[in-house]
Specification:
282 residues; mainly alpha; Tetracycline Repressor, domain 2; 13 helices; 75% helix; 2% strand; Membrane protein; membrane; transmembrane helix; transmembrane
C-alpha cells in the first residue's frame, strides 16, 4: 500500500468507523421514518456523519500520548499511519462543516446538534477521566432524535420516550465499551465512571441500562406494540439478564461485553422499527 493509501486508511480507522456508521445510519433511519423529506434527511445524515468524524478524530488526537504509552497498535497514530496534528486539523474542519450543515436545516436543529457534538468533545477532552464520564453519552445520544425531529421543520416535536431511550442506549454503550480497556485506561490515569465502580458492577450495569432502553421502546410509544417489537424486546431482556449474571459471577470474562453489544444492536433495531413514533404533534 502506498503512503497515501496508508494515510487514508489511517484516517478512516481513526473515525472509529463502526460506531460512526451505526450512529449515522440510525439518524438516517429515524429521519426517513418520520418522513422528514429527502432534502432534510440528506442534510441531517451528512451533519451526523461529519459530527461523528470530528468526534473520532478528536479522540485519537487527544488520546495519542496515552495510546502510545500502552502500545495500542490498533490505533493509526501509534503505528505512524497518521499524525496527531493531521487528526487535530481534520477534527476541527469536520466540526466546522458539521455545525454549518446542522444549522442549514434550521436554527433549533443547529443548536441541538452542535450541543450534542460538543458534548461528545467534552468527553474526549476531560470528562472521560471523571465520575461524570457517562454524562456526555447521555446528552449526545439523547439529543440525536431531538435533532432529527427538529430538522424536519414541520411543527412536530420529539417524543420524550425517544430521548430517554437514546440516553440509556448511550450510557449503556459507554459502560460496556470501556470494559475491554479498563486496565489500559487505569495505567494512563483514566478513571471514568466504569473504572470507579469496578469491572463487576460495570459488567452488570451496562446490560441494565441497555435492557431498560429496550423495555422503554416497547412501552413508550403511544400504540400497541407489534409482535416483532415484543419478540425483540424479549430477546434484548434475555441477553441483558445473561450478561448481568455472567458479569456478576465472572467479571473478567469477555462474555458480558459481547452480550451487552448484542443488546445494544437489538435496541437499535427496535428504535429503527419505532421510528414513525419518534415525532409527535406539538
Amino acid at each position: 500500500m502506498t503512503g497515501t493509501g496508508v494515510r487514508l486508511r489511517g484516517l478512516l480507522v481513526a473515525t472509529h468507523a463502526g460506531p460512526m456508521a451505526v450512529v449515522t445510519l440510525l439518524a438516517l433511519a429515524l429521519s426517513a421514518g418520520i418522513s422528514a423529506g429527502r432534502w432534510s434527511t440528506t442534510l441531517v445524515t451528512l451533519a451526523v456523519l461529519l459530527g461523528q468524524v470530528s468526534v473520532g478524530w478528536s479522540n485519537d488526537w487527544l488520546d495519542a500520548p496515552r495510546d502510545r504509552a500502552v502500545g495500542r497498535n490498533d490505533k493509526p497514530v501509534v503505528v505512524g499511519a497518521v499524525s496527531p496534528r493531521t487528526l487535530r486539523t481534520g477534527a476541527f474542519a469536520a466540526l466546522a462543516a458539521c455545525v454549518a450543515l446542522s444549522f442549514s436545516v434550521g436554527w433549533q436543529a443547529g443548536l441541538l446538534h452542535t450541543a450534542a457534538v460538543l458534548s461528545a468533545w467534552t468527553y474526549n477532552a476531560w470528562l472521560k477521566r471523571t465520575m461524570l464520564s457517562w454524562l456526555p453519552y447521555a446528552v449526545s445520544f439523547g439529543l440525536l432524535p431531538a435533532f432529527v425531529v427538529a430538522g424536519a421543520q414541520d411543527g412536530r416535536v420529539v417524543a420524550g420516550w425517544t430521548v430517554a431511550v437514546a440516553a440509556l442506549l448511550g450510557v449503556g454503550a459507554h459502560v460496556a465499551n470501556v470494559l475491554p480497556d479498563l486496565e489500559d485506561d487505569g495505567a494512563t490515569g483514566v478513571r471514568g465512571f466504569p473504572h470507579r465502580v469496578g469491572r463487576r458492577w460495570s459488567s452488570v450495569l451496562a446490560p441494565v441500562f441497555l435492557g431498560s432502553a429496550s423495555v422503554l421502546i416497547v412501552v413508550g410509544p403511544d400504540r400497541v406494540p407489534g409482535a416483532f417489537t415484543v419478540v425483540l424486546g424479549l430477546l434484548a431482556l434475555l441477553l441483558a439478564v445473561s450478561a448481568g449474571v455472567v458479569g456478576a459471577v465472572r467479571p473478567r470474562s469477555r462474555v458480558p461485553f459481547t452480550l451487552s453489544m448484542g443488546v445494544a444492536a437489538v435496541c437499535v433495531a427496535q428504535l429503527v422499527i419505532a421510528a414513525p413514533f419518534v415525532a409527535v404533534p406539538a
